[in-house]
């Protein structure tokens, strides 16, 4: 709420956020705008406000903030490099039983095809405040992908950064993005220290380089497992794989666990969909044994 008094700050919602955004609405007054179920218009208005010098933030359920108004994001925001912030709630399978219309499985992959736009995917609850503070002064388009935090009990995450090493271990190299990392982290922490993976999370895209400590661990382990609640095309696995191939650092083994859509044809909770796609700890833990890891 510390930024709400900024007279240039304008917040637009696509008629969502009830029982959550009321304190922001009360603090901002007329600068809080309910644009209604008209997301294309909301993005166009936000672009106009940004062009006029306002700090424009837009908010909705994730697919409604990037898929429905994609043309306006492409033409009005990104082509003009306007600092509109797109905040999408419920990344991945976050909206569970509400089904594919409410799931964001290809959001950052699709948006990264556009010029000038940056993506932010927090892992922990504390990351959100750090990202919002960073975006407050951001001078280009940005997409913030939110999801329910699922933090490992007793774990104190390191301060927010684009890349973080969450767990030090001599085993396989593990990489994830977003809240899907936390349940896996909790399970990995329970392993014997001799079998623990080196576990990294990445929170900002596009990727232009890989950290030295990550590539050093990968050279030793020669096995990379990437986990993301996003389809494989355009996702973290594809981006990291391209960088590793281009730099001649491809590992002997590469496993990419990603969103598979709806294998059973059914909808369920976020945890249900993660299990179906092999994104849950019970599916990932067996992969951490080098002897049993498939090539």
DSSP helix fraction: 25-40%
The assigned CATH architecture of the largest domain is 3-Layer(aba) Sandwich
Strand order of the main beta sheet, please?
2-1-3-4-6-5-10
| Average pLDDT metric | 94
Beta-sheet strand percentage?
15-25%
Q: Could you give the count of β-strands? A: 12
Largest sheet: 7 strands, mixed
| Helix-strand sequence | EHEHEHHEHEHEEEHEEHEHEHH
State the CATH superfamily name of the largest domain.
Thiamin diphosphate (ThDP)-binding fold, Pyr/PP domains
Rg result: 19 Å
How many structural domains in the coordinates?
A: 2
CATH topology of the largest domain: Rossmann fold
The low-confidence parts are none
Q: Count of helices?
A: 11
Which overall shape is indicated by the principal axes computed on the Cα atoms? globular
N-to-C terminal Cα separation, in Å?
49 Å
Judged by helices, strands and strand pairing, the structural class is: alpha/beta
Topology of this structure?
Elements lengths: L8 E5 L8 H7 L3 E3 L4 H13 L3 E7 H5 L3 H9 L6 E5 L17 H5 L6 E3 L4 H12 L5 E4 L17 E5 L5 E4 L4 H9 L8 E5 L1 E2 L6 H10 L1 E5 L8 H11 L6 E5 L12 H8 L3 H4 L11
Parallel strand pairs: 1-2, 1-3, 3-4, 4-6, 5-6, 8-9, 8-11, 11-12
Antiparallel strand pairs: 5-10, 7-9
Helix pairs in contact: 2-4
Gist?
With 295 residues, this protein is of the alpha/beta class.
What does this protein look like?
It is a single chain. With 295 residues, the protein is of the alpha/beta class. It has two domains: 9-145, Rossmann fold (3-Layer(aba) Sandwich); 163-288, Rossmann fold. Helices cover 32% and strands 18% of the residues. It contains eleven helices and twelve strands. The strands form two sheets. The protein has a seven-stranded mixed β-sheet with strand order 2-1-3-4-6-5-10, with helices on both faces. The chain has a five-stranded mixed β-sheet with strand order 7-9-8-11-12. Helix 1 links the parallel strand 1 (9-13) and strand 2. Helix 2 packs parallel to helix 4. It is globular, with a radius of gyration of 19 Å. The termini are far apart. The mean pLDDT is 94.
């Amino acid at each position: 709420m510390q930024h709400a008094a900024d007279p240039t700050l304008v917040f637009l919602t696509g008629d969502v956020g009830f029982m959550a955004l009321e304190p922001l609405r009360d603090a901002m007054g007329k600068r809080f705008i309910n644009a209604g179920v008209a997301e294309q218009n909301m993005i166009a208005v936000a672009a106009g406000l940004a062009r006029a010098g306002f700090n424009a933030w837009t908010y909705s359920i994730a697919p409604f903030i990037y898929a429905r108004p994609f043309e306006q994001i492409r033409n009005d925001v990104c082509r003009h490099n306007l600092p509109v912030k797109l905040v999408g709630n419920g990344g991945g399978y976050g909206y569970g039983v509400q089904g594919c219309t409410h799931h964001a499985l290809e959001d950052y992959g699709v948006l990264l095809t556009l010029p000038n736009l940056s993506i932010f995917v927090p892992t922990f609850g504390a990351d959100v405040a750090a990202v919002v503070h960073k975006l407050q002064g951001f001078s280009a388009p940005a997409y913030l992908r939110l999801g329910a935090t699922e933090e490992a009990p007793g774990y104190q995450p390191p301060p927010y950064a684009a890349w973080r090493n969450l767990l030090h271990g001599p085993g396989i190299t593990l990489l994830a993005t977003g809240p899907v990392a936390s349940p896996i982290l909790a399970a990995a922490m329970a392993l014997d220290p001799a079998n623990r993976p080196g576990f990294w999370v990445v929170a900002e895209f596009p990727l232009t380089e890989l950290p030295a400590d990550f590539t050093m661990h990968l050279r030793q382990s020669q096995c990379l497992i990437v986990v993301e609640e996003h389809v494989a095309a355009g996702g973290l696995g594809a981006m990291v794989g391209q960088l590793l191939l281009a730099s001649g650092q491809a590992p002997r083994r590469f496993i990419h666990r990603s969103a598979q859509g709806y294998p059973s044809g059914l909808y369920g909770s976020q945890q249900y969909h993660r299990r179906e796609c092999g994104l849950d700890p019970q599916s990932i833990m067996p992969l951490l044994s080098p002897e049993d890891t498939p090539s």
